[in-house]
Hints:
The protein is an alpha+beta fold. The protein has a single domain, classed as Arylamine N-acetyltransferase fold. It contains seven helices and 13 strands. The strands form two sheets. An eight-stranded antiparallel beta sheet has the order 5-4-3-2-9-8-7-6, covered by helices on one side. Strands 1-10-11-12-13 form a five-stranded antiparallel beta sheet. Strand 12 and strand 13 form a beta hairpin. It is globular. The two termini are 30 Å apart. Residues 6-11 have low confidence and may be disordered.
Amino acid sequence: xxxxxxxxxxxxxxxxxxxxxxxxxxxxxxxxxxxxxxxxxxxxxxxxxxxxxxxxxxxxxxxxxxxxxxxxxxxxxxxxxxxxxxxxxxxxxxxxxxxxxxxxxxxxxxxxxxxxxxxxxxxxxxxxxxxxxxxxxxxxxxxxxxxxxxxxxxxxxxxxxxxxxxxxxxxxxxxxxxxxxxxxxxxxxxxxxxxxxxxxxxxxxxxxxxxxxxxxxxxxxxxxxxxxxxxxxxxxxxxxxxxxxxxxxxxxxxxxxxxxxxxxxxx
Length: 267
């Protein structure tokens, strides 16, 4: 695959080499023409979330990890693993920057299932500047398949799901409609961050029992026709018409991780 000409940027920032960009594109099974436009961005986003799972296995196994580019590349590309929001959106930002996209990083606060902000929460999202601004998030788990237009309060439909981004209290709020009700996911301001700004929270999730991920095995991936989630020992498969929950015996978990999520190695 011929990669687009890469713009010169800040040489002090870590970046993916052309060979590593090609390997990451192969990891997400993307072999189409690459142009720096919204159509390519949408296709890259969809390819990423349908091939790389959201997973918290290293936290569950009490294995420490950082958000450094070498560790991200080794885990997600070479070992064909997934990761959680900080890892997935970080490596996707490196990929997009390497392909010539204008990417910025933001932190968000999550809402609970009652619609209230979780004060201590911190989720990472990306914004890509093209002819318009696009909200990019490949690290939400069962999130949106393709980017959303940021400055667009109208309903944005993707398959059987509908989203909107509204302004509230000087913040952007991302919502999805469920059973006729708009449920908020997260909110954020336009104060950009660096990946290093998330390292403290990354350590918190690995070490603090108050983390929602601490000692909890989660693995999720989106397919074209369903969302698949392993939560503890419960396998949850959701389609437009039904939800099937199956209890998986512990000794069968490694095989399930490979068959359903493509995780071939646990080392």
